[in-house]
Every structure is written in structure tokens, then in C-alpha cells.
Amino acid sequence: MKIPVITVSLLILVLVISYLILAPSGEVENQAGKSLQQSHLNEEKSGFTNNGLDQDENILGTESNNENRRINMQEAYVKLEMSRKHLKSRANLLKSKMWGMELPKEQAALVSNNMRQAYAYLKNPAMLGAYFEEEEIYIELKKTTAMHEDLNEIEKILITSKTKEN
Questions:
Q1: In 3D, which of 109, 78, 123, 115 has the Cα closest to residue 93?
Q2: Contact at 8 Å (CB) between 73 and 128?
Q3: End-to-end CA distance of the chain, in Å?
Q4: Could you read off the pLDDT tens digit of each residue along the chain, which spans 166 residues?
Q5: 43-53 per-residue burial string, b: 16 or more CB within 10 A, e: under 16
Q6: CB count in 10 Å sphere of residue 41
Q7: What does pTM read for this prediction?
Q8: Within 10 A of 91 (CB to CB), how many other CB atoms are there?
Q9: Angle (deg, nearest 10), helices 55-98 and 105-123
Q10: How many CB atoms lie within 10 A of CB 114?
């Protein structure tokens, strides 16, 4: 069963090679030129243009942009990591200060909700590879800033409740 398949494939290979060798060189070039023209027409119809630049120039131009983007993203991510670290330490400090304190129901609900949100946010932080743009990192940084403000409110509540106790 395998012998006829091999024989047929070798026969086809020999025919293709003999055609390329025996065919006039102009005919093969004409066919190649026609296929090249057809590919250019297809590109024009699809709206794809490379604005007169070679493919190598496009790649080289984007490499430097990608390098700059990566560096900017790393710098922004370092800021985000520091903000998360600071948020975690503040949340832990406030948790230790609140231990055993009794607050009015409304304030206790607010404190509990804000602390849960902070710890939920810190539980599974996204790594640098999870972000596609630098703007996404800055959005996360704004979230941590908002949580810092919530912790400031909690701190004010704790200070006022301590002064009321004394």
C-alpha cells in the first residue's frame, strides 16, 4: 500500500522539477509576476497599506516604541507595588488598633466594609504582565489611592471614638 503512494509522489516531484527546468525562464517569471500583481491588488482592495515603508522599517520602529512602553510600564508598576505595600501595612496597623474597640453600628459597618474592600483588593494583586497599557496601571494606582483615603476616614473614626472613651 505504501509503495504506490511513494511512487506517485516521486513521479509528481520529478514532473514539477522537469517543468521548472525545461520551461522557458520567461514563462515562470511571468507567472511569478502575475501572482505578485494579484497580491498587490488584494492588498489594495482590503485597505492594507504599509505607507511606503519596508517591513523591516516597521519592525524596527515598533521595537523602540515597545521598549519605551515596557520601561514606562515597569516604572508605573513599581509605584503601584509601593502603594499596595503601604496600603497593606496601614490596613494591618488599623486592624491592630481597632482590636477590641466598640463602635456605633453605622461607623462599625463603614469600617468593616472599607477594611474588607482593602483586604480583598490586596488578596490577589495583578502582576505586571496582566496590564497591557501604562494607563491600566495608573487606574489601579488610583484605586489604591482611593483605598488610602478610606483608611484615612477609618483612622479619623478611631481617633474620635478614642477621645470619646477617655
A1: 115
A2: yes
A3: 98
A4: 567 777 877 777 777 676 667 665 555 455 555 565 666 555 555 555 555 544 545 555 577 888 888 899 999 999 999 999 999 999 999 999 888 888 889 888 999 999 999 999 999 888 888 888 899 999 999 999 999 999 999 999 888 887 877 6
A5: eeeeeeeeeee
A6: 10
A7: 0.58
A8: 22
A9: 140
A10: 19
Q: How far apart are CA 55 and CA 77, in angstroms?
A: 32
Nearest to 150 by CA among 106, 107, 111, 101: 111
Q: How many Å apart are CA 31 and CA 86, to the nearest integer?
A: 68
Radius of gyration (C-alpha) of the chain in whole angstroms:
34
Cell of 82: 509601593
Look up cell 501604562; give the residue: 134
Cα(100)–Cα(161) distance, integer angstroms: 12
Looking up cell 482590636 gives 99
DSSP letters for 80-137: HHHHHHHHHHHHHHHHHHHTT----HHHHHHHHHHHHHHHHHHHS---GGG-SSHHHH
